Amino acid sequence: MKLTVIGAGNVGATTAHIAAVRGVAREIVLLDIVEGIPQGKALDIYESLPILGQDCRVIGTNDYADTANSDIVVITAGVPRKPGMSRDDLLSTNAGIVKSCAEQAFAYSPSALFIVVSNPLDTMTYLTLKVTGLPRERVLGMAGVLDTARFRSFIAMELGVSVKDVSAFVLGGHGDSMVPLIRYTTVAGIPLAELLPSDRIQALVQRTRDGGAEIVQYLKTGSAYYAPATAVVEMLEAIVHDRKQILPCAVLLQGEYGLSDVVCGVPVKLGRNGVEEILSIELTAEELEALHRSAADVRRTIERMETLLAQQSS
Ligand code: APR
User: For the chain, which terminal residue's Cβ has fewer other Cβ atoms within 10 angstroms, N or C?
Assistant: First the structure.
């Protein structure tokens, strides 16, 4: 298994580190546009492996030729948010970056599976699909696993229980309109609604929606990376170990949930072939409406991106 991580910043380097620690790949290539950063970080990660007893080649590079024949490419290149910014505010900078990264990586690894992390996530995933022309099974975005982990953390904190007891699902776009599904959220199998009053649940839902901004507010100069990188590695492991794991991921919808030609977070089965199934779970009219509202937000951002890219190329 050869893994390429594009962008050796906070999310990319942390992803490469966790992937190396967990022995996800035989070879990890960390690529960045800045000279020295990927080389230095890759060497540092490699030097941790004798202590861990993990056997994996880790190299840092600025040259896409080194990424040739990757099985999986993770795109984290781009700028992160600063306080007061929404993910959509990153669009004009990150669209150009993600487009060029996807084009170049695809040229060297035409049969790779792509996992997109750069924001605005759903739109950058859509862009990667269009740029590579890969089938939707092979291009997916990491957001739902992170948003769900945040929701689970807040529920565990509120109830004073183990995070392991909390099972949840957050669907929709990776933005303010994401859709935490209360009916599918349980604590040791007990529906959340039986354990918490609805006003408390709503407060946790709101904290989840603002979860990324909460970290940006603390860090001031960047956004979250430990939980995002861990979420990417969970997806990598599901694929590499052919786990057939059901995880919320951003994928291109073609009729599912009444949505088409838009990328949105829904439950998918992840295995060796990437997205092996998109699960259509039953939603109430209210939940479906929330999902459609979230998808409409993504669609607007996709349209803005298309205009921007057309202007940049003219
Ligand atoms: N090619 C390769 N790497 C690039 C390019 C490019 N064209 N442009 C920028 N980069 C690199 C930067 O040099 C930097 O090392 O991407 C890296 C981004 O790292 P950080 O600034 O630390 O940002 P990070 O916190 O990792 O977030 C990256 O993921 O979660 C999202 O919103 C976040 O869009 C952001 C992305």
Answer: C
Is any ligand 1 atom within 6 A of the Cβ of residue 97?
A: yes
pLDDT at site 176:
87
Domain 144-304: which topology?
L-2-Hydroxyisocaproate Dehydrogenase; Chain A, domain 2 (3.90.110)
Residue 262, pLDDT > 90, answer yes
With 0.70 as the threshold, say if the pTM is over it: yes
Residue 117, ligand 1, Cβ within 6 A: yes
DSSP for 93-162, please give it: HHHHHHHHHHHHHHHH-TT-EEEE-SSSHHHHHHHHHHHH---GGGEEE--HHHHHHHHHHHHHHHHT--
Q: Is the CB of 163 under 6 A from ligand 1?
A: no
CA end-to-end span of the chain, whole Å? 40
Extract the tokens encoding 149. 């982990």
Q: Which pLDDT tens digit goes with each residue over 236-246?
A: 999 999 999 99
Condensed to tens digits (0 to 9), the pLDDT of residues 85-101 reads: 988 899 999 999 999 99
Find the 11 Cα to ligand 1 centroid distance in Å.
Answer: 8
Identical fold, 2-141 and 144-304: no
Cα 301 to middle of ligand 1, angstroms: 20
Delimit the domains of the chain by residue range: 2-141, 144-304
Among 15, 37, 64, 76, the mutation site with the greatest number of ligand 1 atoms within 8 A of its Cβ is 76
**Superfamily for domain range 2-141:** NAD(P)-binding Rossmann-like Domain (3.40.50.720)
For 119-141, the pLDDT digits (tens) are 999 999 999 999 999 999 999 99
